[in-house]
Amino acid sequence: MNENPQKPPVNIEHERLNSLINSMADGVIAIDEEQKIAVYNGAALNILDINTAITDKQLSAVLTLTDPHTNQTIHIPTLIRNTKRQYSSRDYIITYKDNSTINVYISIAPVRLGYGVTGTRGHVILLRDITHEKSLEEERDEFISVVSHELRTPITISEGNISNALLIAQKGGDISKTTEALKLAHEQIVFLSDLVNDLSTLSRAEKEKLEVQVESINVYNLLSEFQKAYTPEAQAKGLQLKISPDANVELLNSSRMYVNEILQNFITNAIKYTQKGSVTISAKQINNAIEFIVQDTGIGISRNDQAKIFNKFFRSEDYRTRQNNGTGLGLYVTLKLARLIHAEISVNSELNKGSVFTIKIPNLKQSYH
Ligand code: ADP
């Protein structure tokens, strides 16, 4: 043990303290008993958007906090005066001169500035920009509320119809009424299963490190498989399902799973939103990529809606859209998957004439995360 530890001179200690608080990512401000600023760091100036020295200024002259729920400005002197123990909040915003805002985390702690009994009382304020975290939280809350809302209707309808079917059966009743009720319940259960499938694809697509397994896909065979799989659905609506692969289409090196999922979304939408006519799936070789085109003669998408169809949960208000079940997640997931395999999507549509969804998928060299 060092018998006579050498205490560093006061100014060196001061320098150390200064460089320590200046290296902090959070804004730090120490104020004295009169709420005048004694010490601050560069991060504090950044958060306050001030580029001049603020020593000796009143804290309330440089910091304005607003409660975004009530739109009321917080009275800083009172807030500080009332802070006898540590206080923190994630609920305030700072508004800048250009009216832009940030969400802040603020922590206020009473401290003794200086040494020993002579040290005066004051407070240390910590400020952190949490705008990004807040927007993620809001997005998550909105997501949960939309999903639970989307779940409620089909659950209520199927529950109601199954109880009806039970009641009729118990009364030794009408088989056609029982069938009708069970049919309605079944439709809703199918919708629920679609929703759950879309949600699980979404959660896979939203994980940042999603694996892309590159395989050789025979484009001609792929289109034939689609034709075989979707013809019954199309025929049930009196639609023709055509495929038109160019003679020179080669193999496509990409993720079979994602290519399938993307094209299936386009094809099921095309069938769903077309009342008469046809759905055509084409494929063209374009340099080092394959361009797939899914064209329908359906209800079309207004120019205004075209800008929104890839948004989470968006469904057109058109009554013909609402006649079909849908979650509004299909195209949102499609766009995410397309980005993963570096594909580009474009839409061309005219109301009452039909829609053309085009996706250009490049050949990928190897699998990646
Ligand atoms: P949904 O489950 O509603 O089909 P999507 O995300 O797949 O969800 O599509 C979003 C919306 O885009 C649909 O609700 C519909 O309004 C519109 N849409 C997508 N494809 C077509 C299409 N081929 N024809 C007309 N409207 C379409």
What do you see in this structure?
β5 and β6 form a beta hairpin. α5 runs antiparallel to α6, α6 packs parallel to α11 and α7 runs parallel beside α8. The two termini are 53 Å apart. 23% of the residues are buried. The mean pLDDT is 89. The chain has 3 domains: 120 residues, PAS domain (Beta-Lactamase); 80 residues, Signal transduction histidine kinase, dimerisation/phosphotransfer (DHp) domain (Helix Hairpins, Orthogonal Bundle), CATH 1.10.287; 160 residues, Histidine kinase-like ATPase, C-terminal domain (Heat Shock Protein 90, 2-Layer Sandwich). The chain has 11 helices and 14 strands. Strands 2-1-7-6-5 form a 5-stranded antiparallel β-sheet. The protein is an alpha+beta fold. 42% of the residues lie in helices and 25% in strands. Bound molecules: adenosine-5'-diphosphate (ADP). The site of adenosine-5'-diphosphate (ADP) has 22 residues, from α8 and α11.
Characteristics of this structure?
alpha+beta; 3 domains; Beta-Lactamase; Heat Shock Protein 90; 369 residues
The percent range for strand residues is 25-35%
What's the mean pLDDT score?
A: 89
Oligomeric grouping of the chains: single chain
- Which architecture of the largest domain does the CATH hierarchy give at level 2? 2-Layer Sandwich
Helix-strand pattern:
HEEHHEEHEEEHHEHEEHEEHHHEE
Number of helices: 11
Bound ligands: adenosine-5'-diphosphate
Question: Biggest sheet, strands in spatial order?
Answer: 2-1-7-6-5
Question: How does the major sheet shape up?
Answer: 5 strands, antiparallel
Gyration radius (Cα, Å) is 31 Å
